[in-house]
Amino acid sequence: MRVSADALGWTAGPRAIVQGVTLEVAPGETLGVVGPNGSGKSTLLRLVAGLLPRATGEVRLDGVPLAALSRREIARRIALVEQQADTAEALSVRDAVELGRTPWLSALAPFGAADAAIVEEAMAAIGISAFAGRPWATLSGGERQRTHIARALAQRPRLLLLDEPTNHLDIHHQLSLLRLVSRLPVTVIVALHDLNQAMGCDRLAVMEGGRLAACGPPAEVLTPARLAAIFRVGATPLRDPADDATQFRFHCLQE
Amino acid sequence: MSIAATHGLRARSLVGRGAAGVAVLLVAVLAGVVIGETPLPFSTVAAVFANNLWNAGHPVDPIEAGIIWNYRLPRTLVAAACGAGLALSGVVLQALIRNALADPYLLGVSAGASTGAVAVTIMGVGGGLVGISAGAFGGATLAFLLVVALARAAGGGPAQLVLAGIAGSQLFNALTSFFIAKTANAEQARGIMFWLLGNLSGVRWPDVSLAVPVALAGFIVCLWHMRSMDAFSFGADSAAALGIPVRRVQAVLIGATTLMTASMVSLVGSIGFVGLVIPHATRFLTGPRHGALVPAVALAGPVFLIAADVVSRVLIPGQVVPIGVVTALVGAPGFALILIRNRRRL
Ligand SMILES: Nc1ncnc2c1ncn2[C@@H]1O[C@H](COP(=O)(O)OP(=O)(O)OP(=O)(O)O)[C@@H](O)[C@H]1O
Ligand SMILES: [Mg+2]
To answer: With bands split at pLDDT 50, 70 and 90, how would you rate the model's confidence at B126?
Structure first.
């Protein structure tokens, strides 16, 4: 699905949290969003999902303005995995993943065999089938995170918004998640902190103080100068001889 | 077994369970009619039912017939409706506010309804144009809005909500007492105080025609929104991201809750703890999903309140204990259990 964001903005009181962000994401593309803490990554994702009141600018999905769609229609197109979402309910993993079917169900279309199959498939894809019956309170941070991602997959979206999805995940699950996401035939916008992981995205958007500082292919966007200016780190690019990929080694800038 | 076959079974067992639920409810109502200070044999009850339902013309003592048909049956039906209404209100509030301690009584909604009802009854607010139930609805809505606004202003956590609920309950109970002191004579005051504790003695058929439709409508609204309530598990934003029109659902569900609570309070006074203890106890059996929880609570609430009413009638011979006292005697320890179970979450 093609996503176009035009002059997105959101203010909290007098403070502009996100300002004038204009983006275009091609169908099937994976766009990484990077930036320091508080630079507006999560807010940008929530703006794209149409979740913030009093937002300015416009989001279009395949040319259709978000404002023209009902919440249910939006949820059939967009799934969001938030940075943190917890519950005190004694839901099981399967219960939580089944929530992803919500926008597809109604009184006339109750949860059926097809939905159950989609839920099983989502849990298998993310490797959580083994503990499908475990209650939420007993899950580790990474298991919760993966459950949220499986829930988003079960939603069968055409745009997947992931806010730091590799949080809490061990290295194996980080890598397999990123590989899974990049292979999905859906458009993905993913906020990431690990800049080396971000190098694997098709394009990167760099946020700074609520504005879009740069957007383009990772190698062009993450220049040592920009890393120093925005992320306040020095970076030495290293080349992996196996596949000629670039990785950074970071170090503190001396003031 | 294939998944499709499993779902066929699920649908069939759903109908089976629905029928079983209705059967349990009927038995409970029957028990509520049979058991009482004057024990009446089941055969008499059956004869009176047959006479009234299809003019069977069985010979029965007119006094016994009166007790059964005009006194015990409406009373039991209203108890059932109140049980369902209050327990479902608790389910809705706990789901939407995401707080284990949310319930119409603790949040001051019942107190607000009492104030509204008293204002209309004895102060003549509305000049006779507003019914008691409408007054209760106004008071309940006002109390809920006040409590939620106060909780938000105080930071919006679970503890803040409970504290705001206490403040709201105190305020509205004080207002009620003030209205009574200002306007009512001693006789009226006694009657009202008794009613405030929860009292089904005065219930007659016209009350049934308010309580039962309201409870049924509330049940249907809750069933209709069972998936929405599930979607609130991870918060309102998460519900919105799952396609729930959050504002509309909140308005409809809170409106239904307020209406149920207000109607029940206007009929029988404020009965505590049902909205808190019944949903939590039921969750032990059904789990947290509202598809199972809502029907189970709509069954457990009535059964509990019918039982409480029976106990209130037979506990002290020759005297009726207010039903609110009975529910509190069971509810307070239940509440303590919930507090202990939730100790890490609050
Ligand atoms: N509802 C709100 N009201 C006021 N300020 C807010 C609100 N939401 C976010 N902010 C502020 O907006 C800024 C951007 O927040 P956001 O969560 O988008 O940052 P982020 O880039 O996702 O940060 P992180 O890397 O820490 O996740 C922060 O300074 C935050 O304090
Ligand atoms: Mg963030």
So the answer is: low
Domain that holds residue B85: 81-341
pLDDT digits (tens, 9 = 90+) for A27-57: 999 999 999 999 999 999 999 999 998 999 9
Instruction: Select from A42, A70, A71 the residue whose CB has the most chain B CBs within 10 Å, as the one to mutate to test that interface.
Output: A71
Q: Between chains, do A88 and B100 touch, taking CB under 8 Å as contact?
A: yes
Classify residue A38: in a domain, yes or no: yes
**Residue A150 forms part of a structural domain:** no
Quick one: pLDDT at residue A66?
94
B 233-252 → A contacts, CB under 8 A: 233-235, 237-238, 240-246
Whole-angstrom distance, CA of residue B35 vs CA of residue A44: 64
**In this predicted structure, which of A11-25, B92-106, B232-246 has the lowest mean pLDDT?**
B92-106
Residue nearest to atom 19 of ligand 1 (CA): A38
- Specify the 3-state DSSP secondary structure of A34: strand
For range A114-142, the mean pLDDT: 94
Element (H, E) at A60: strand A56-61
Q: Is residue B41 part of a domain?
A: no
Q: Which of A5, A69, A7, A39 is nearest to A163 (CA)?
A: A39
Q: What is the ipTM of this complex?
A: 0.91
- Closest-CA distance, A173 to chain B, in angstroms, reads 23
CA-based nearest distance A226→chain B, Å: 34
Please report the atom of ligand 1 found closest to the CA of residue A44.
18
CB distance from B18 to chain A under 8 Å?
Answer: no
pLDDT (tens digit per residue) in B140-187 = 999 999 998 998 888 877 778 888 999 999 999 999 988 888 887 888
Q: What is the CATH number of the domain that holds B290?
A: 1.10.3470.10
A135: in domain = no
Q: Say if B100 falls within a structural domain.
A: yes
| Chain Cα centroid distance, residue B43 | 31
- Residue B230 at interface with chain A, using a CB cutoff of 8 Å: yes
Residue A209 is part of which domain span?
A: 3-88+156-222
In a domain, B265, yes or no: yes
Q: How many Å apart are CA B33 and CA B73, to the nearest integer? A: 6
Total domains in chain A come to 1
Closest to B286 measured CA to CA, from B215, B226, B342: B226
Whole-prediction pTM value? Answer: 0.90
In the numeric block, which tokens belong to residue A129? Answer: 């089938």
In this complex, the residue of A73, A86, A99 whose CB is nearest that of residue B242 is: A99
Inter-chain CB proximity A76 and B244 less than 8 Å = no
| Number of folded domains that form chain B | 1
- B202-207: long-range contacts, CB 8 A cutoff, minimum separation 24: B203/B74, B203/B75, B203/B78, B203/B267, B203/B268, B204/B70, B204/B74, B205/B70, B205/B74, B207/B74, B207/B78, B207/B267
Q: Is residue A184 part of a domain?
A: yes
Q: What is the pLDDT of residues A182-205, one digit of tens each?
A: 888 899 999 999 999 999 899 999
Does the residue B68 lie in any domain?
Answer: no
Residues of A in contact with B345 (CB under 8 A): 88
Asked if B288's CB is within 8 angstroms of A91's CB, the reply is yes
Q: Chain B within 8 Å of A157 (Cβ-Cβ)? A: no
Q: What CATH code is carried by the domain that includes residue A79?
A: 3.40.50.300
